[in-house]
Amino acid sequence: MPESSVQPGQLCCVTVSKWWYRVIIHRVINDQEVEVFYPDYGNLEIVQKSWLRFLKWCYLKLPAQAIPCSLAWVKPMEGRWSNAATLLFKKLCGSKLLVGIVDEYVNGILHLFLCDTSTEEDVYFHCVLRDEGCADICGENIPSQGFEELNPSALYVQPSGKQEN
């Protein structure tokens, strides 16, 4: 891609380990690297500018597959999620299949309960976060402060059509 096209918000593709992925340039790091957002997976990664390519028109029109989500009925103890809460959440997710129970879809954010059903007793994430002192159960869905900063999909992925509460 020409340097003039390497700008935040540019939809393109990147080759990683012989596979091609749709990406959106999130920010330019330096002369060789950019941080990209994967709209079909929801993650950020730093890649080499030389790996970027223009995307064929037919793939530009496809909707993003990642959906902005928030854990239902919980909020951080003190305004922002602590490092302990984030680490506990990552530990709970840990490369296993989870069950997601949808509570509601509001303003382009899917609010859901997450449950690990891989053991004898189901483990609900919001209960574990509460029991470990990392979250308050609030009985309503409040997007985290700084949601757009922490979740680039909120910047780039728009909900399809109007959604009602």
UniProtKB/TrEMBL annotation:
Pfam families: TUDOR (PF00567). Residues 5-62 form the Tudor domain. InterPro entries: SNase_OB-fold_sf, Tudor, Tudor_domain_containing. This is Tudor domain-containing protein 5. It comes from Opisthocomus hoazin (Hoatzin).
